[in-house]
Design brief:
about 270 residues, Rossmann fold, seven-stranded mixed sheet, disordered C terminus
């Protein structure tokens, strides 16, 4: 079997890097690395090297064919390679379905910290879908049965993903068609984890007005992972809504408080002399 091509990554390099660990940003369903632009810019301005990952099939002439054959397990394998390529155990920030992929990819791997934003709990912690998602699944059932890549409609995205207006009205810029297998995983969430005491700190950000992920399910996920759970403003699309600036600042404070001293680069000699 031919070796799979590495995942496309948008690199945000700081003017002056302050941290050894890169930030790896992983998008969710029906999305691409473009969704991370405000967050990655913010973190880069604070001295982080940010690597915004694109799962396969986001762009390119062969995107539709790539999506048709893409499987959840392949995404996990690809993301695991991104983690291993980091020069220092990275800080992983993942949203939505990307959180499930990140957690699976991190099994047996090293990380400095993990931030899960509105993550999808596996089925064992959320056996019953919220009514809104049941209706969404019913609406797209024909496309799912045909196993065709498709993109969520703007009206459904506005209704379910947004808890507040999108920043600058840029609400659907980064929405793309996605793989039938990933869409199925989004609704079914039949992903099994080797639960145990985490080897790194984990933060779960639960959006206050999230229609996609119930708060109690995120409480159960936090308990299972030994993670810290914090409520933040916004809906499921908290990374792109107005008011998200405060959330990214809170996430940054948490990361620095938990591991800042361990991942700080040594100051350059002239700075130390001063």
């Amino acid at each position: 079997m031919d070796k799979r091509a590495p995942l496309p990554i948008d690199l945000y390099s700081p003017e002056r890097q302050k941290y050894k660990a890169p930030l790896i940003l992983l998008h969710g369903l029906w999305s691409s690395s473009l969704c991370w632009m405000p967050w990655a810019t913010h973190f880069a301005n604070l001295g982080w090297e940010c690597r915004a990952v694109n799962l396969p099939g986001r762009f390119g002439a062969d995107a539709a064919a790539e999506l048709k054959r893409l499987r959840f397990e392949e995404c996990v394998s690809d993301v695991r390679e991104v983690l291993r390529a980091a020069p220092f155990p990275p800080v992983v920030v993942a949203h939505d379905l990307g959180a499930l992929i990140a957690l699976k990819a991190l099994e047996g791997e090293k990380a400095s910290a993990v931030v899960l934003l509105a993550p999808l709990p596996p089925a064992e912690l959320l056996p019953e879908l919220p009514r809104a998602l049941k209706l969404l699944r019913l609406k797209y059932s024909a496309l799912m049965l045909l196993r065709r890549p498709f993109r969520i409609e703007a009206g459904d995205f506005h209704k379910l993903w947004l808890g507040a207006p999108a920043r600058d009205g840029a609400d659907t810029e980064c929405l793309v068609a996605d793989a039938p297998a990933l869409i199925q995983t989004f609704f079914a969430r039949r992903v099994h984890f080797a639960w145990g005491k985490s080897r790194f700190p984990i933060l779960i950000a639960a959006a206050r007005d999230d229609c996609v992920v119930p708060q109690d399910a995120l409480g159960a996920l936090a308990a299972r992972l030994g993670a810290e759970l914090r409520e933040v403003p916004g809906g499921h699309w908290l990374i792109g809504e107005q008011g998200g600036a405060e959330t990214v600042r809170e996430v940054h404070r948490w990361i620095v408080q938990k591991i800042g001293g361990e991942i700080l680069l040594e100051p350059p000699p002239h700075a130390a002399a001063e």
